Amino acid sequence: MRGRDYVAEPKPLPPGGGRSVTPDELTDRRARLEREFAELQFDLGGLAYEMAIRDHWRVDLLVRHAARLQTVDAELGGLERLARIDEGGAAGTCPNCDALYPRGAAFCSQCAHPLMR
Ligand SMILES: [Zn+2]
């Protein structure tokens, strides 16, 4: 009952699956993402400002920036959820995509990689 048959595995599992993550690492990762989010938001604002004063809109650029912001925001949301679930306890990282997962998760929520050993 491992569910391996449902997922095509491009890479073999490293021995022992994903590494475990300490509460400190979780906090660091969150702080880094929060910084990244703030920077991206600042850049997006600056970009919009530059376009506004030149009255030259590159909507594709704005959309690309917003998409990156959204990705970071989603990752941050996932981390916060994880911190609540686990209260800084034993979480791990997916051996396939490095996303964090809570203890007892059977599959990675990002790439559906099986996590049970
Ligand atoms: Zn994954």
From TrEMBL:
Record region (Disordered): 1-25
Top-rank taxon, per record: Bacteria
Name this protein carries in UniProt: Zinc ribbon domain-containing protein
